[in-house]
From TrEMBL:
Entry-linked PANTHER family: LACTATE UTILIZATION PROTEIN A, UNCHARACTERIZED PROTEIN YKGE
One Pfam family linked to the record: CCG
A single MF term (Gene Ontology): oxidoreductase activity
Organism: uncultured Aureispira sp
Superkingdom of the organism of origin: Bacteria
Occurrences of domain Cysteine-rich (ranges): 6-84, 133-217
Any one of the GO CC terms: cytosol
Transmembrane segment boundaries: none
Protein known as: Predicted L-lactate dehydrogenase, Fe-S oxidoreductase subunit YkgE
Length: 239
């Protein structure tokens, strides 16, 4: 059986390790043999977004070495996957063999797309009572073209009513360093997203990307709003 190698983004490793554990649980549940390389670090996106090209280059080159020639690499963050797929060629240039880079870019998957496109979903047994709004993370939607896979998976969760937000494709305001450089705009965008959830009377905001959810949860907690954000993996592991 082909091993499923997992990449756990640095901020998930440090702040939300349970989500990574839940991803592994689900992958095993659908029949995958999971492998984790403990030497992995970061994809390099934070450094590049902050303008540190040399540092981003070093981290990206290490990432390619860590995951070179793997048949399937799965990550619970479309932001990281989109960065690797769309920006590594420019960042690394000819310093990494084109065939090696192309193989990695063609064999790294965001968690939801991997489940839907490569796994038998018949063993999923998740349950979550309540109503939820799905948020399309910018990277998932625009860099990875992921839209239907998360919704299909959520439709299999017993007890969960998924309510569609007409503005689901609008950014939540996080945008990495955008949220620190342009804080008032970022907070206003989070406020708008949360208000939409309240208008729909949902209990949860669900997404593929914890970076978006971290931003929204921060606003929710500051304003003491009765809403909860959940990563897709945390939903699918629920019983």
């Amino acid at each position: 059986m082909t091993k499923t190698h997992i990449f756990v983004p640095c901020f998930i490793d440090q702040l939300y390790p349970q989500t990574a554990i839940n991803m592994v649980t689900i992958l095993k549940q659908v029949g995958c043999t999971v492998d984790y390389n403990p030497n992995q670090t970061c994809c390099g996106q934070p450094a590049l977004n902050a303008g540190f090209w040399n540092e981003a280059y070093d981290v990206a080159k290490k990432f390619v070495a860590d995951f070179a020639n793997k048949e399937q690499v799965v990550c619970p963050s479309a932001s990281c996957v989109g960065f690797i797929k769309n920006h590594y060629a420019k960042l690394l240039g000819t310093d990494v063999a084109a065939s090696t880079l192309a193989h990695l870019q063609n064999h790294i998957y965001e968690f939801s797309e991997f489940l839907v496109d490569h796994c038998d979903l018949s063993n999923l047994t998740a349950q979550l009572e309540g109503k939820a709004m799905y948020h399309d993370a910018c990277s998932a939607l625009r860099e990875c073209q992921i839209k239907e896979a998360p919704r299909l998976l959520l439709s299999k969760v017993k007890g969960l009513e998924l309510v569609e937000n007409p503005n689901s494709e609008v950014c939540c305001g996080f945008g990495g360093t955008f949220s620190t450089k342009f804080e008032p705009i970022s907070v206003a965008m989070a406020e708008k997203k949360v208000e939409e959830a309240l208008d729909l009377s949902v209990d949860y905001i669900i997404s593929t990307d914890l970076s978006c959810l971290m931003h929204l949860q921060g606003y929710i907690e500051k304003k003491k709003i009765p809403l909860k954000t959940l990563h897709l993996a945390d939903v699918l592991v629920g019983e």
